[in-house]
Amino acid sequence: MTPMRAVLLVIFILVFLTAAHAQSTAKLTRAISFEELIKRKVERSLSWSNPDGTKETMHFIEMTIPFTPKARKLTLEFNKANYGLSSYWLTPKMVVIHSMDLGDLQRSLELSSLLHDQIPDSWGVLHKAGKLPNGAHFMVDKDGTIYCLAPPVTPDEKSVDYTSPAHRWYIKRHQDGNPCAIGIENITEANGDFADLTAEQVNANAKLIRWLVQFENTKITHVASHHQFNDEDTLDQMHRLLGLHYQTKANRTTGRKDVGEEMLQRIILKAQEHGGSVQSGFNK
Fold this sequence. Notes:
seven-stranded mixed sheet; 14% strand; Lysozyme-like
């Protein structure tokens, strides 16, 4: 190889690597950084009455991930392609509990695509189903701290709304029934067991569910874990029960573990302690 060709080859490689890095960086653009999210956090408390007359108060931290114009566009595209719906508003009928074995709060947010403006291209089937990044309305830490990442808002979208019957939730991509599901993520140890929730997390999930059922005026009837929808029959039953019409199953995810059946039932039993009637089965 002549010196000139060698120089040209080096230049080509440098240009290629620079372009590849730029493309990779573009794929990983974040709607908000973890540091900025922490700066914006707000401590809140909510009180309500359960069906048995008991009073409860829930303390939590609001850390809103921005619902940007790009997020709106990708939500509409995802919802249309997967469910034939043309809206980014949620119709809450169920709560789905997830978990992630990524370690602490920061890693759980940064490595899950929750802070990104689109899902990474390299995420195979998930990317084929749409570029909308993963999301959740709430996240529960190992000590039981509840974080609200996508709070309910007023119809004009100008402020959060935890009290009015007119509130609305944005759809967040987190499982196969997400046009009807409020998503809760749980933080677990990195590379550990997805079902390894602490007692504090079980109690926090149950309390959060009790508030959600009360806040939605009993419109929420089911609590599930994503592992249930690995099964085609259960997925079909859930769709029929909630009035969903899934456009294609070609790009849906299977093999999810999440909190597992035993932990799911523990949470549901706790959620039912004060007269709640939520269930996990989807047979009519």
